[in-house]
Design goal:
The structure holds two protein chains of two kinds. In chain A, 43% of the residues are buried. The longest helix of chain A has 40 residues. Chain A is 82% helix and 0% strand. In chain A, helix 5 runs antiparallel to helix 6. Chain A is mainly alpha-helical. The N and C termini of chain A lie far apart (50 Å). By secondary structure, chain B is mainly α. Chain B starts with a helix and ends in a 6-residue tail after the last helix. The model of chain B has no long low-confidence stretch (mean pLDDT 93). In chain B, 81% of the residues lie in helices and 0% in strands. The chains are: A mainly alpha, B mainly alpha.
């Protein structure tokens, strides 16, 4: 089995690169949108608040797989055709935005009320309070949960297999279908996913302990 | 509207897979959580490794390993069995961690008090700490269950006729690329929202009866 694994490793390694890149792009695009949604959800204007709550709930209530199918197969009907990689980035970024907005909202709410009152007492505007007081501290509280979510998003990149993106799982599957050694090659793919998720899990645990030191 | 009927056919399978996987996970997660909390390294190290591996490999990859790998080369499995088994194992990993944090959240004074009253360790666990840990773990477990309802959509990749599988089939048959998936999204939201509301209600009621 080891000889096979060494033979397949370069091919699967390229797939892993695609998966990691896809996860990084989705998270970097999705989190700022999530922050925006988190701020809009706590808006004082009812119309803004309700629209963003509805968007977030739709985004969180729909499986990532369905979002992926909608973006890749559905959008061409609406006149927007995306390649597999772009479609996967867009779909996972949308899912990330919806989920992280709730994580970030939790972080913002965990900032002590006194901080906001102090900012108001200093005569800071709503925007400045958000920008200089609430968001920096809230994001810091949210970081461990965001890293944890990033790991889940990395796992979710395997769903892009269904839109024929050449990521780790689809490369493993096509090796499997040509050699009939499905178990061996899929196991190697599993090990490669673990090689990213387990160290990231440790990292997020350490980060959590470090960041909670001063809270 | 024509797509709704076709996609609705998948609902029983989605529910079946979710419920069976949850049952497997709830049962297997318990010994895993207890082993993980054990003071014996021979128990907690393997338990931790198992949990990390179960949670660290993406669900689709698990399903492929079980259905294409194990199913083709070792034990013949149909898609439904492979789907329930795969998601059940993954759930065991996640639920074990949820149980563990529930047990950890019960105040240590509860152990000490039941010890002082002369209860055995088993009795303390089953009658004193367990029921309280259950109440603490329930919200996280129900959040996980709602997540699993959506994540169960990955079984469509190995050919279980669930909601996503039906909408893909309908999309291919009718040539409509958007509507079947929008219907699927709406069904998932309609299934998940009542569960979310119910779990939020149950949570606030159960939380009143936990010593901290």
């Amino acid at each position: 089995m080891l000889a096979n694994w060494l033979e397949w490793l370069p091919e699967l390694g390229r797939g892993l690169q695609t998966s990691v890149l896809l996860a990084l792009i989705s998270v970097t695009v999705g989190i700022p949108v999530g922050l925006l949604l988190a701020v809009l959800v706590s808006s004082r204007r009812a119309a803004v608040r309700i629209t963003s709550i509805v968007l977030v709930e739709i985004g969180r209530g729909t499986p990532a797989l369905v979002v992926l199918q909608l973006v890749y197969f559905g959008l061409p009907n609406a006149g927007l055709t995306l390649g597999p990689f772009t479609a996967a980035c867009a779909a996972l970024a949308l899912t990330t935005a919806a989920y992280t907005s709730e994580i970030i909202r939790g972080g913002l709410e965990a900032v002590p009320r006194g901080e906001v009152e102090a900012a108001q007492a200093l005569g800071m505007s709503y925007r400045d309070t958000m920008r200089f007081v609430l968001v920096p501290q809230g994001m810091r509280i949210a970081i461990p949960a965001l890293v944890g979510f990033g790991i889940l998003m990395f796992q979710a990149t395997s769903l892009a297999f269904t839109i024929s993106l050449q990521e780790l799982l689809s490369r493993a599957y096509s090796i499997g279908s040509s050699t009939f050694l499905y178990f061996q090659v899929l196991l190697l793919a599993g090990v490669l996913y673990l090689a990213i998720t387990i160290p990231s899990g440790w990292l997020s645990g350490r980060l959590e302990r470090r960041l909670s030191r001063h809270l | 509207m024509e797509h709704v009927g076709a996609v609705l056919l998948g609902v029983p399978y989605t529910l079946l897979v979710t419920v069976v996987a949850l049952a497997i996970g709830a049962a297997l997660g318990l010994p895993l959580a207890l082993a993980r909390r054990s003071s014996l390294a021979a128990l907690h190290l393997p338990a931790r490794a198992v949990i990390d591996v179960l949670r660290g490999i993406p669900p689709v990859v698990w399903l492929f390993i079980i259905f294409f790998g194990v199913g083709n080369q070792f034990v013949p499995l149909d898609p439904l069995q492979a789907g329930c088994l795969g998601l059940g194992l993954i759930s065991a990993g996640y639920l074990a961690e949820i149980y563990r944090s529930g047990l950890g959240a019960v105040h240590s004074g509860q152990w000490e008090a039941s010890d002082a009253l002369g209860l055995s360790r088993t009795d303390s666990m089953v009658r004193i700490v367990g029921p309280q840990a259950f109440r603490v773990a329930l919200p996280a477990a129900s959040t996980y269950a709602i997540g699993l309802l959506k994540d169960s959509s990955v079984v469509s990749a190995i050919g279980v006729a669930d909601i996503v599988f039906r909408s893909t089939a309908d999309s291919r048959a009718t040539g409509a690329a958007l509507a079947p998936f929008l219907v699927a999204a709406a069904i998932y939201i309609l299934l998940g929202t009542p569960l979310a509301i119910a779990s939020r209600r149950m949570d606030s009621r159960l939380r009143q009866r936990v010593a901290r």
